[in-house]
Write the structure tokens for this entry.
Amino acid sequence: MDLTVTACRPGNLERLLDLFDAEFVRGRGRTVPLRRRFPHILRPEALDTLFTASSGDVLCGGAAVRKFVWKAGGRLWQGAMVGMVCTAPQFRGRGVGSALLRGLTVKLSKGSVDFAVLWTSKHRFYERLGWKAHLDLGQLGRIDFTEKPPAQPPLIPRGFGEVDLDRIESCRSQHCSSLVLRTALDYRALPFPADSVEFFFWDRAPKAVGYAIVGRQGSTGYLYELVSRTEDFHVFLSSFASAYTTLFVNEHSSGLFYNWLRNRPLGTWDHQDQTLWFLLSREMSTVDLSAWHIPYIDRM
Ligand SMILES: CC(C)(COP(=O)(O)OP(=O)(O)OC[C@H]1O[C@@H](n2cnc3c(N)ncnc32)[C@H](O)[C@@H]1OP(=O)(O)O)[C@@H](O)C(=O)NCCC(=O)NCCS
């Protein structure tokens, strides 16, 4: 097949978004279009990070990249998340997906990116193309709240419009030794399968001392990020018990909240080994990737 892999041209954006929605939204019985879930990634202003594979005028496949800055080990790294890798059904098995991934990593390697990362269960497809799994400390927990919730929930969930992002950022800089640098738009992400995202704050005037970001689908919560002092974890847990019947917890094995829950013991846990890396800069050979865990809310 005569394929060209390029950054998305303006005239192709709608077709590309429709290809993504056909596969990842309509094809999976979902309704919320991807541009509403990822308004910080699928933007007309970011066409240079959306990739298409075409044969002549025919769009055969596409993928999205989110470039980001990762602060870890006392320095800043240039990262690129890859997602929505997709070949139109009629072109599968003809090398489109492979060409797309190869073209995309070549372009990233020319653009001072240190590493690319993605999350998948299809390891074989990516490993053939040079992506590598390293020890992944991801954990997904499930807590079913069976006891009656407290009558007076300590923290009331708030919507995005009611949130002061500076307070989140001040907590992050205080508590997180590694983090993705975020803009206000990055907080508009709506990860699968949530219908909305809620924010919990634990305030001690004049500033917030902890916060949580949780997706909601019906009465189920999906905890994406909890940043707080350990002694305040119980406040968040009882607030979650008031707000949800079941809570899925995205954590990692060295995470404070994970270890706090394991000591209770609360919840059942599944090890997640979905992270694949593509190393681009020479400095990456010095990094222990098992210590790098990108929070769920930042992922694509
Ligand atoms: C995964 C996907 C992008 C592959 O695209 P494609 O154009 O068919 O891929 P290629 O033709 O380049 O496939 C090359 C190889 O990958 C293998 N492969 C394809 N899909 C695979 C999958 N789902 N799991 C494992 N291997 C896969 C093929 O068998 C082929 O191997 P071979 O060369 O040894 O025969 C395509 O199947 C797709 O769009 N799937 C739906 C969306 C999706 O799941 N995306 C991935 C999100 S993580």
